[in-house]
Amino acid sequence: ADADTQDSDTKETEDTRQPSPVIPARIGEVVVENLEFDFIDRSISPHFSTRLNLSELRVTGLTSEDFKAADLTAKGTLNEHAPIKINGKLNPLQENLYLDVTYRMDNMELSPLSPYTGKYIGRTIEKGKLVIDVDYKIEDKVVKAENHLLLDQFNLGQQVESPDALNLPVGLAVALLKDRNGQINVDLPISGRTDDPSFGIGKPLLNALKNLIVKAATSPFALVGSIVGGGEELRYIEFSAGSAQIDEQGAKKLDSIQKLLYERPELNLDIAGYADKESDRIALSDQKLTRKIKALTLKEKSSKDIAKIDEIVLPPEEYEKLLRKLYAEEILSDPEKKQTAKPLKAPDLTIEEMESMLRGGITITDAELRLLAVERAGQVKDYLLAGERVAADRIFLTEPKNLTPEKTKDFKASRVELNLR
Questions:
Q1: What is the reported pTM?
Q2: Percent helix, percent strand, percent coil in the chain, to nearest 5
């Protein structure tokens, strides 16, 4: 328990076994054996208790003479089954404390911490074990600590109603961080000064953990970017105007997403497709016009022929010939349009003018744009499921609230957005 966050009158530390006397093993050496503490925190319901046994604590080289630091070693167990080892140097005699130690604890059961997790995050711990590696240094009042945590087979349990619970996406953070072996590796560096009244051991560590969980909600791809390379840009898969084909850059991003989903088996993915009302509408109009021109080459407009229309390649001279034919049929044959249109024999009539006049008669509806957006999302899903590294039941196509996405500085609206959960 963190003394910075608990009331002192609700914690008890009981010495249940008489320790051996301090034994001066040799000059400059202090040894304490079989030191045992029981800790009970009654400020929380249900109460929390734990037991610490230090089988040996040894300080070597301690002297009142001027010296850098004495050697410190200690070993023991927490709750009888979680071994603890401490090694390093310290000098408690100088004006400014000097400390440079490493601390390791293995095999700590996490489910007994459920009273705390229930109160502060609204969930119990179903199971899990913890390994802690800490490098802690204090010199000239400056505190630097590297905390490495390994949570093995960590699972959250049932919901707990608690007015103190923080609204944090703990479940998402666990899914983002837990690898295929059921392990979570986290590095939480902290720093501060011993002469800062607001500094404590527990609060910076808790704040670092809180920031990690908040990052899971605000920047999930950045949180796990080290796994696949990249950051939040991975969530945006861009497309050429009017197209649902995944380009080379999009394929690289999706390869990374596929790897991420494989390495993080508890993650699910939502896919939302979008369209740009301006650029996609222009591109779809061009496609319709091109298909109209190509359709003139088909002898029989059967469904089979029309299905292959995009495969037709027209030489430039053939394209212009058919364009002029379509221009005559749709523009010059219309009395109203003919009034503002140039005749076919006009020497200054250009291909661009004919295309523009024909395109003006083509309408692209929002429904057609939505179909393009849906097709883009489907293409992304198909790509991710190829190779069978990711199960289909982990990927969901979602219907966005709007046809176009929120504007972003670096990404165009013709895109698909990915959301981890």
A1: 0.78
A2: 35, 30, 35
